[in-house]
Amino acid sequence: MKSEKENLDEFLLIKKYFQPLAGPGSFDLTDDVAHLLSPKLICSNDILVEGVHFFADDPAGLIAKKVLRTNISDIVAKGAVPEYYMLGVVFTQKTDELWIERFAKGLQEDQDLYGMRLLGGDTTRHQKPSPLVVSLTIFGRPLSDRSPVLRSGASTGDLVFLSGTIGDAGLGLMVRSGDLSLSAGANRFLKRRYLLPDPKIALAEKVSAYASAALDISDGLLADADHLCKASEVSMELSAEKLPISDAANSWLKQRKEHDPGLAALAAMGDDYEILCTVPADGAQLFQTEAAGAGVSVTAIGRCVAPEGYPKVTLLSKNGAIIVAPTHGFNHFSQN
Amino acid sequence: MKSEKENLDEFLLIKKYFQPLAGPGSFDLTDDVAHLLSPKLICSNDILVEGVHFFADDPAGLIAKKVLRTNISDIVAKGAVPEYYMLGVVFTQKTDELWIERFAKGLQEDQDLYGMRLLGGDTTRHQKPSPLVVSLTIFGRPLSDRSPVLRSGASTGDLVFLSGTIGDAGLGLMVRSGDLSLSAGANRFLKRRYLLPDPKIALAEKVSAYASAALDISDGLLADADHLCKASEVSMELSAEKLPISDAANSWLKQRKEHDPGLAALAAMGDDYEILCTVPADGAQLFQTEAAGAGVSVTAIGRCVAPEGYPKVTLLSKNGAIIVAPTHGFNHFSQN
Q1: How many CA atoms, within 13 angstroms, populate the side-chain half-sphere of residue A24?
Q2: So what's the pLDDT on residue A47?
Q3: CB of B123 within 8 A of CB of B89?
Q4: Is the peptide bond before A148 cis (omega within 30 degrees of 0)?
Q5: Of A87, A331, B211, B230, which residue is the least packed, with the fewest Cβ within 10 Å?
Q6: Given this model, what pLDDT does residue A257 score?
């Protein structure tokens, strides 16, 4: 692992705070490279920016965990488990040792929780007042020869499953930004869902065993379902009434006069980090049972159908009417 | 590869400009993960920031090449060849399609030159005026079981070799910043050396075959020699007269009244991206001959000696006097 440049201060900071996080193949962060000792790894990269993906005053430990977990989410959705990560950080001019200590503590807690280790990385520092940037490359071990489960494997007739509940993180961002207030308990729950994703690592094995296609939801259920449909060249019919909604999100829904557009809005919110996957009909019952056995609730929310014209996602109301979905995902040129 | 968020614009930009760069295991950048198909890879990460590692108005293609080459440099210094890379970019608010097109063209030219392919990555965009950030994780294939050649393998008696010439990039930065002007030709040469590192990929095989320890010089010869000494627990005696100096750097040296402090200054400048390695005496002749045969000039600049007290690097003048070295590397809290 390299500090930029390797002056005494940052060299000692890496030794003090990051070396304890290092695992096999990392050479204890004393060299320029790391050795990937496991064969057939998969990898993914997420780059998170202050002011875009987190707030400047979010706790350092939570920022660390959010960066790790958004990456872990990518890996487990593919039927693999996280093993290692490379970390690149651009500190701000104000980043002090206490911040780095808390950031490293957040990494330590989560890498212990998810069974992974630091391999190496690079640190540098802005020369002007500029936002903190964290880039993480994660490596995962596929749990079977069927993994990585891609976006492109879904077929007509497959059932569509979703883990957990949707829309909470999007509402949590509104609470965090002061644009929404519900009960104290609901506010706390929703903010937590925004600040700290909960990647469903226990589901990785079941995805690897049963899913024909899968991805994690970061851009919103409808947008990511759309990505899966395009890659698989199928369409999806999703039932709004079946969407798994938390009590807190339900209390928000009840405040709105129109129920269906509210559900569609939840299905368009981002940052859920739940798993969306398709499962052939003959494995659906076992998938759901085994997922429950692994402690993860999954809900069948629809099915894949033949694309008419082009692959698309349709959200249907209880009576079968098409609910017009709002913007799929968000466009950061205008909205983010 | 993921755009953040996957709105139409950036999705299409990735498809148009980055998909042509993708290689085996990348799933054509259509999924969230990539598959590392080669066993026993090594990897490294560098994160480069506008205003720290490059100028805002440097050509996009040159920024792309600098990011790739600083990472390639890490890999070849370990006796390995580059194979794949993951790319994370935080665009500025002003980054337009033309900039991205030129950036991708720079990547294309260099990945063809060095025989490597894009695996995946992530793009996002600043919400406020903020510097461009590029994070690159590179994967390399070790050329023998002796690779990766670490910093820690040097022994007393080993000879110290350096590829190419040193100090050019540091002088080039001074020229680029308007703090130095030599002849037009020298200015051009030095600026080029700063803007476009020349990683010695043909030397990777020889390092893998002969070197006991190695690293690439990014913080300056003296600073990186110091890193190697600390990791190997040896000291080094380097001969100032033997340091390989380009004609352009020599013209700068001649302008100075004091020759030895000038040499020491060149040995402390950063961004050389040459290879520093140690070779046991019995392999030194073959290493030098084979390196020359591969088209890379290497110079024996000193030897490893037993550490007295603690590992350190001493730069000696022609008559054996100790030249006091200036700051080893630079400290970006005060200098960068």
Answers
A1: 7
A2: 94
A3: yes
A4: yes
A5: A331
A6: 82
Which one of A34, A45, A332 has the shortest CB-CB distance to B42?
Answer: A34
Kindly list the structural domains of chain A, giving each domain's residue range(s) and its CATH number in brackets, ordered by start.
10-142 (3.30.1330.10), 151-316 (3.90.650.10)
Contacts of B331 in chain A (CB under 8 A): 5, 7-9
Compute the distance between CA of residue B215 and CA of residue A294 in angstroms, rounded to an integer. Answer: 47
Residue B124: phi, psi to the nearest 5? Answer: -150, 180
Digit-coded pLDDT (tens) for B133-177: 999 999 999 999 999 999 999 999 999 999 999 999 999 999 999
- B34–A44 CB contact, under 8 Å: yes
Cα gap A329→B5, rounded to integer Å? 7
Q: Which residue type sits at A301?
A: I
- pLDDT (tens digit per residue) in A284-312: 999 999 999 999 999 999 999 999 888 99
State the pLDDT at residue B328.
44
What does the alpha-carbon distance between residue A71 and residue A82 come to, in Å, rounded to a whole number?
9
Q: Is A183 exposed, middle or buried (0-12, 13-18, 19+ CB in 10 A)?
A: exposed
Closest partner residue to A44 (CB to CB) among B33, B42, B87 is: B33
Distances (CA, A) of B282 to A56, B158, B225, B285: 56, 9, 21, 7
In tens, the pLDDT along B303-324 reads 999 998 889 999 999 998 998 6
DSSP designation for A149: P
d(CA B40, CA B110): 24
Residues contacting B217, CB < 8 A, separation 6+: B162, B166, B224, B272, B273, B274, B275, B276
Cα angle value B122/A174/B129 (rounded, 5°): 50
| A31/B216 CB distance under 8 A | no
| A179/A256 Cα distance (integer angstroms) | 15
CB contact under 8 A, B90 and A49: yes
Both tokens assigned to A73: 């989410």
The C-alpha atoms of residue A244 and residue A250 are separated, in whole angstroms, by 10
